[in-house]
Write a structure and sequence with these properties.
The chain is an alpha/beta fold. It is built from ten helices and 16 strands. The structure holds guanosine-5'-diphosphate and zinc ion. The site of guanosine-5'-diphosphate has 21 residues, from helix 7.
Length: 375
Amino acid sequence: MAKKKKFRAEFRKNRGSRARPPDLTREFRAGDERGQDRARQERVSGKGELTRKRVVIGEEAADADGFAVTPDVDLAVCRRGRVLAVYGLTSEVESEDGAVYQCATRRLLKTLSTGQRHVVAAGDWVYFRPAGGNEGIIERIEPRHGVISRTSRGRQHVIASNVDQMIIVTSAAEPYIKPNLIDRFLLTAEQNGLRPLICINKVDLIDPAELQPLVGVYSRMGYQAVLLSARDGAGVDFVRRELKDRSSVVVGQSGVGKSSLLNAVEAGLNLRIGAVSSESQKGKHTTTTARLIRLLMGGYVIDTPGIRQFQLWDIIPAEVVTYFRDLRPYVSRCRFPNCTHSHEADCAIKDAVADGHLDARRYESYLALLADEPA
Ligand code: GDP
Ligand code: ZN
């Protein structure tokens, strides 16, 4: 548990112009009084926007996003709750007694320099101050574990927080299965310490034997891959057991049957089912907001409709291979310590692919991710 103390937190400087006018140095050298005054008052540093500091009382702790600040709240009035969804500046928060509040976010939290586009994300545990009726103000966000994020205009955008596992939904047909997209999601799961479960839906449309080689590749790496049909119910019991009492995020292209699967898992959820448009095979996207759903049997799922894939956030090319369970064991045998396993000579990974020890498609998927190509 983090120690409580006073600390200086950096704030995004969101008011006024740059503190230091461009001609300050010249003024100072010329002995201009105004310049000297300014130099005494201001700490000029190269940190640009992040130099405004204020004292906050609370805790500081490392969490899934790095450094997090959790200011103290008045526990006599604030309630604990979990964020169901974020709509612009308003977050829907379910308090522990089950009531749902529409909450704004305290200004202090918004200005803390987290570098994120939204400070609040679906799945966050928060303390909020009731503000009459079903309204409230979020005063504190608990440190997060297990997040997934994407990059939005150069900033990290946390889509789902406090999840333990990632349900990767893909479909055998309509739309056709995209193994490279599975690999991309697997990388995100590995990077964030989430347990992945690969669900291949719509197997009623194909001969399941066709998928055995692909399932075999994932099983040999220690991943669970399940063939299912939300339509006829095959495999649904298995998924239900995996979801029970856990916090999961459900990812996958739209149209693969995420909503159908969740409806099959728990009757009564009544999530909207979209139709797959035949020309694009992409599925209509109904909404883009991640939403936390509490399961009656126990557990939570965060549905992420409309989010087709995640850009890789915060990953350097040399790291990509470390998230490929199958390729990783060969790395130490490459001739060059900084081998990218793409064009280099005496590369143990390329040799293993050539000798049939590694799956060639997985290797191609690795190369695509290395180049950060969309799946
Ligand atoms: P989402 O966008 O991933 O949530 O996908 P939906 O659940 O909205 O489903 C998209 C389409 O796929 C709908 O027309 C569903 O009826 C259809 N669908 C879902 N699951 C299955 C399945 O197991 N088999 C078949 N044949 N169609 C399915
Ligand atoms: Zn190599």
